[in-house]
Each structure stands twice: as C-alpha cells, then as structure tokens.
Fold this protein.
Amino acid sequence: MKIRNGLRMGMVAAVMGLGTLGGWSPAALAAPPADQQREASLGFKGLGASLGLVDPEGASSTVSFGVHIDGGEFVRNVHLTPLVEYWKVGVGGSDLSDFALGTDVTLDFPLQNSRVVPYAGGGLGINWLKVSTPLVDNSDTKLGLNLLGGIRNDVMPNFSLFGELRYNFVSDANQLKILGGFTYHFIY
C-alpha cells in the first residue's frame, strides 16, 4: 500500500514538474498568451485528446484514453469542456471498465506575460461501469462528480499541451487520474 501511494505522489510531482519546466522556457515567455487573443464565446472551438494513468478504487492502475472538445468560454477565463474517457483493467479473473461522458467547467488563473496557465475546475459525468467475468457480465450506469486541477502551456496560438490531476467521485468506483494531452484550437 505504501509503495502504491508513493507511486501516486511521484507521478503527481513528475507531471507538475515537467509542466512547470516546459512552461518557464524562454520560448514560452516570448509571445503573448493565446487566450489573450481570443474573445469569450461558446461553440466548437477546438478538439483534443488525453492519455494518462488511472487508479480505480479496489483495482490495479491502468491506462485511460480520452477525447475532449474546447467548448469555448462562458465569460473570460471560464471554459466549457465536453469529454469522453475510457479505461479497462483486469481484477481477479474479471474485467472492470468505465466509459464516461461528461462536461467540465474550468477556471483559468493566467500568469502575467506567460503562456503557462494553471487551472482548476469540476464537472459532472455519466459513467457506464461494466464488470465482466467468464460466466456473467454486469453493467451499471452511475452519475459522477469530477474535480480537477492542472497546468496548460499555450505552445502556439492554436495548440496547447496540458498536465492534469483529476479525481472522479463515482459510487463504488472512485478514480484518481493523472493525465497529459493536447488541444488543437480552431482559428477562424
């Protein structure tokens, strides 16, 4: 148990450290942040993907895959992000999987003269949990609450990288996730 907790803390420190180092490079400070060039409005503003480590309650760690949409901003620095995520892991002769469809709202904390943007937020999702054994399959649909925090680096006006720590509260299947990914922002 101590090794597992140590692994979690080490991964969190590594993700945050890499995000910080990448964000404070001279190239990151050279141009104005991309979010200062966009106006607040909702719509299909971009598309992205994520990959990460998920640690579901009562199961081994596994890999999580996700796709998200940049849904724009309600007001300046408050973003809407619809998303889809999936993971699957073997547990004691059975398989446990989660397919989630949700929406997050995040608040940016822009740093002056920097492309690095810390953010925090949360959202709701519908989780389709499935337990498969050699004899029977059992599926359940549950509502989940997401809390998250991360660092985004606007590498170019239309492309950003992010590192994120997320906790999903889902009845009988709480999940800690460490994710990294990208978002391609459409420029019109």
Summary: Confidence is low (pLDDT under 50) at residues 1-7, 9-36.
